[in-house]
Structures are given as C-alpha cells and as structure tokens.
Amino acid sequence: MLSPDEFFEPVEDWERDTEYIAMENKSFGRDVWSRFCRNRRALFGLVCLTAVVVLAIFGPMVSPYPYDGMDVAVKNQGSSIAHWFGTDQFGRDTFTRVLYGARISLMIGFVATAINLVIGVLYGGIAGYVGGFADMVLMRIVDIIYAVPAMVYMILLMLLLGSNVYSVMIGICVSGWINMARIVRSQVISLKEQEFSVAAFVMGASTRRILFRHLLINSLGPIIVSVTLMIPQAIFTEAFLSFIGIGISAPMASLGTLAQDAKMQLEIYPMQMIWPVAVICLVIFSLNFMGEGLEEALNPKGKR
Amino acid sequence: MVKYIVKRIGIGLLTLFVLVTVTFFLTRMMPGSPFDIANLTPANQEKMISFYGLDRPLTEQYVQYLGNLFHGDFGVSFKKAGVTVNDLIASLAPATMKLGAISYGVSLILGTALGIWMAVTRQDLVKGSILTFSTFGVSVPNFVLALLLMLVFGVYLNWFPVLGLSTPRHYVLPVITQSVYPIAQISRLVKTSYTEAMSQDYVVMARAKGLKGSRISLLHILKNAMIPVITTSGPMIAFLLTGSFVVENIFTIPGIGREFVNAVSNRDYTVVMGLTVFMGILIIVCNLAADLVCVLVDPRIKMAE
Questions:
Q1: Residue B188's Cα: distance from chain center in Å?
Q2: Other residues' Cβ atoms within 10 Å of the Cβ of residue B247
Q3: Are B161 and B169 in contact (CB under 8 A)?
Q4: Quick one: which of A304, A297, A253, A241 has its CA closest to A28?
C-alpha cells in the first residue's frame, strides 16, 4: 500500500501564486510603441521623416551658401563637391534651397495641421456633445463647405491675400478641419452614451471636464491617425499652389516653388526638378506610412 | 423617400447659393482691376468699368448676377472681348469631362479589381505590394506624376504624344496621371468593405444554398461592398476637377482647369465665377446622384436617416 505522499508532489511556492504575471506590465504608450516598431514600413517612415526634419532645421544654418545667394558664374551646374545637388539658373545652390524649401513646406504642414486640429476637435466635439438642433446646423455647415472643392476657395483666397506663407496656411485651414470635425463628432456621439461618461455626469462633472477629460481623451487614437494624414495633405496642397504659381514666390522657396522653377528647363536640366520632387515624395510617403503604422498600433483589434 | 430626396436637393441648392455668394464677394474684394492694363488711358478704363457695370453698388451687381444666373447666364468675359462665359464653358467642358470620365472609369475598374484581389488573396506578397502601390498612389502629388510621365514616356522614350488631346494616344498619359490617386483610394475602400461583406450572414447563407462562387461575389458581396465607393464619387469628381488645373496645364489641354488658372491670373472675374459655379453644380449634382444611387442599392441607408 502506497502512502499518499508517493502519489502527490508538494506544490512549489511560486506555483501557488495564481496571480503571477509572466510578462512585464506594459503601459499603453509602450504597447503602442512596440506594435509601431514591428511595422517595418512605419519605422522606415519615422526614420526618414526625422532625417528630413533635422536636415531642414540645421542644414541651412551650416550650409556655406545662403538660400537666395545668386552667382552667375556657376549657373545650371550638375552635382559637384562644392554644390551637392548642383545649382539653378541663377547659380543658387540647389541643396541649400531644397533644405530651405523643405523647412518651409514642413512648417506649413505642421502649423496648418495644428490649427486644423484645434478647430476640428472643438467643432466636432461641440457638435457631437450638444447634439440636437445645434449639431444639425453645425453639420450642415460642414456639408456645405465640404461640397465645393477646397482648392477653388484656396486659389481665390490666395489671390485676395497675396502669395505668402500665412495666406497659404489660411487657405489650408478653410476646409482642412472638416474631416477632423467629422471624426471627432462621431467618436463623441458613440462615447457619450457609454457608462463611464454617464457616470461622470451623474457624479456632477462639468461639461468641459466630461468633454475634455473623458470623451476627447478616449478619441485620441483616431485623432492622432488623422493628424498624421492631415500633415501630408497640407504639404501637398502647399506644393500644388506653389506649383501653379500662386503659392510661395521666389526668392523664398518651398518644395513646390522649386519644382515650378525647374519646370521651365525641365528637358535640359531634369535634375533640378528631381531633387525637390524627391524630397516632397519622401516626406509625404513617410508620413503616410507612419499614419498606417499608427492606425494599426493604436487599434490592435481592428482588421488589417 | 420623397422627403429624403427633397431634403438632399434643398441642401444642394443652399450649398450652391453659398458658393455663388462667397465667390462673388471674394472676387470683387481682390486687389487690382481687370482693366489695369498699361495701354489703356484712365478715361477708357472708366468707360470699360461703367460698360461692365463695375461702378454700381456691390449689392446691385450681386442681385443682378444672381438674377442672370437664374436664367443660366454666366455673363461676359472681361478679358476676351465679346466671348460669353457660357460659350467658353461649352467649348472647354467637353475636353475636361471626357478626360475626367475616362479617368474615373479606369479607376473604378482597376481600383475595384485590385481591392477585391487584396481582399481574397492569401498571399502576403500580393497584399503587401498592392498596399505599397496604393500608399505610393496617395503620396505622389499629381503634378510630380504628370511631369515624370511626360519626361520619361513623352520626351526620353517618345512613346506617347504630350500635347493636346487629338488622338486616343494623347489620352494615355493624362489619364494615368488622373487615375493613380483614385485607383489607390478605391482599392483601399473596396478591400475593407469587401472583407467585411464576405463574412456577413447573407453570404454564408448564399454559400449554404449552393450558389456559384462567381454569382456570390458579384451579386451578393460586391453589390454591398461598392456602397462606400459610390459615396466617395463626389469627392473623387472634385479631385479630378482640381487635378485638371495641373494636368491640363502640363499636357496643354484646352479644358476648364487650364482656363480657370489662366482666368485667375488675368483677373477675369466673370470667367472665374462662372467656372467656379459650374464646377460647384457638377459636384453637387454628382453628390446628389451618388446619395440617391446608394439608397436605391441599399435600402438600409434610408432607414438610418
């Protein structure tokens, strides 16, 4: 006859701890970051964008050439050690001008998006939270602005305000916030019926607190994703306006202006066109890849 | 149903009214006069201004413009003597519309095909490459694409002509330029909605009944998957119209986009306003048509309204 001791083994100490978590506890931010890093294309986008931003900020400072310094002796040159990207028809250093142009294009992209973000979030948040008649009126206004190609308004505004950085930004902000407002509104509408916001209301939280601390914080995912898609849109719009000749004008340079300048001699000196255009594509590409990566990282349950 | 249509038309008309008003006042507020030309004496300038009624109060001009618009009269060009905006639109619209229609047709067919392919394939390589292509498609600005195509296929390889629209071969490069972005967008939309529709109960039901695979995918899945595509046709047409500003300039096509940019730099108010209103009407009508088609295809939408 065997004693019970021979049937059973004593449980070791660590096995008693049923609450034991094998994985390190991750915060939401670190979780998103690790999912983002797993997406190689998104990571590639982040690296490229960082490189362009750093170059655009510090490049013109350390470059030996000013962005508008003309030198007839060296016009229309190809790449060389002195001029990495060659020179344009006035002998301006293309490398410096491309970096300077990238600086202006990126600045317009980021600032215009920031303004659109604020307008869109407030507008959509208020429409969604208040609801009823106000929501109806606000959304009809959105429909009306949305129904007309934004580019038409933008071109008229540019002519009215003159060609400079600020009028391009204002032009982009005329209708750039519409998508953001729609996204925030639909988020707020679906979130405000959920238990946590009802609970906050019952506990007497103020409207502002509910809207900002509960509803908008919980819509942060879609907001971030749509911001990463708004920046390339703004950069594209600026380049488009400058390219058709009503955006930013020489001697200032944005990437679109550079492409427009190079168009005249495209068949003789195609490289003058290729550099700025390559940088535009790189920036927009990187931001779009990052947007896709963030969308996946912030919404792991979503279908791929 | 009737109530829904009336509501939609009402919103469309309101949009048009706002568009006309905003355009009118924006163009009138612009610095510089259309008759600010070097070889025109001040006396003659004033004559011109009073001839076109630009010296009258703004509100009176506005009311008159609205009244003329009601009769379908867009006014007379300030710059091209004796040319009415209606004639201008009649002579320019066909080129733009033909190009736009062909581009949209191509994008619908290719975009839907790529979208379905992405949804049904199990090969990550195919999925990945189509997805990369579509990111490429939404990332490359249309003027960049137009110039690259012109440089490579028009100038270096000399495969396609790059000036005007006189033969079918002339359409190739402009149509490619105009369709890449819509193809990318449509393929993404179709991929998402097709994947969603594939797992619906009615598809399982159709399979259980033993229907043929092709019949299921065309009649049951695709019909439902196309709704977001129809809804975005309004923005797509807006995209094609604004795209025409650049494409028609680069490929020297006599169309609305090219004329609009020219009129803007010439300060030809009536042409700018006429073309803006015309484009607005096109887009509003397309949006309306898209909404109605959606309701016809999918009665569930009407219920939600």
A1: 19
A2: 27
A3: yes
A4: A297
Which range marks the domain in which residue A253 is found? 48-64+92-302
Total domains present in chain A: 1
User: What is the longest distance spanned by two Cα atoms in chain B?
Assistant: 85
Å between A41 CA and nearest CA of chain B: 9
Nearest residue to B189 via CA among B234, B134, B257: B134
The residue among B120, B243, B262, B121 whose CA lies nearest residue B181 is B243
Q: What is A253-273 written as a DSSP string?
A: --HHHHHHHHHTTTTT-HHHH
Cis status of the peptide bond prior to B299, with omega within 30 of 0: no
Residues in contact with B176: Cβ distance below 8 Å, sequence separation at least 6, in sequence order: B145, B149
Q: Is residue A98 part of a domain?
A: yes
Write the class of the CATH domain B85-267.
mainly alpha
d(CA A76, CA A66): 17
The 8-class DSSP code of residue A12 comes to P
Look up residue B186 and give its two tokens. Answer: 């449509």
Burial B1-17 (b: 16+ CB within 10 A, else e): eeeeeeebeebbeebbe
C-alpha B100/C-alpha B105 separation (Å) is 8
**Which distant-in-sequence residues (6+ apart) come within 8 Å of A86 by Cβ?**
A76, A77, A78, A79, A80, A94, A269, A271, A272
Inter-chain CB proximity B139 and A156 less than 8 Å: no
The single-letter DSSP state of residue A74 is G
Of all residues in chain B, the one with the smallest CA distance to A260 is B143
The amino acid that residue B125 corresponds to is: L
CB pairs under 8 A between A and B: 111
Mark yes or no for CB contact A244/B246 under 8 Å: yes
Residue A133 corresponds to which amino acid? F
SS3 B257: helix
Complex ipTM value: 0.76
> Shortest CB distance from A292 goes to which of B31, B135, B196?
B135
Domain boundaries, chain B: 85-267
Largest CA distance in chain A: 108
Q: Read off the tokens for B305.
A: 């309204």
Of the candidates A278, A252, A229, A244, the one whose C-alpha atom is nearest the C-alpha of residue B144 is A278
**Is residue A21 included in any domain, yes or no?**
no
Owner of token pair 């594209």: A236
> Cα Rg for chain A, rounded, in angstroms?
27
How do the pLDDT tens digits run along chain A, 304 residues long?
667 677 777 777 766 676 777 777 777 778 888 888 888 888 888 999 898 888 888 877 777 777 676 666 666 666 666 666 777 766 677 788 888 888 888 899 999 999 999 999 999 988 888 888 888 888 888 888 877 777 778 888 887 887 788 888 888 888 888 888 988 888 888 888 888 888 888 888 888 888 888 888 888 888 888 888 888 888 888 888 888 877 777 677 788 888 877 777 777 777 777 888 888 888 888 888 888 888 888 776 544 4
Please identify among residues 167-226 of chain B the ones whose CB lies closer than 8 Å to any CB of chain A: 192, 195-196
CATH number at residue A53: 1.10.3720.10
Residue A273 near chain B (CB below 8 Å): yes
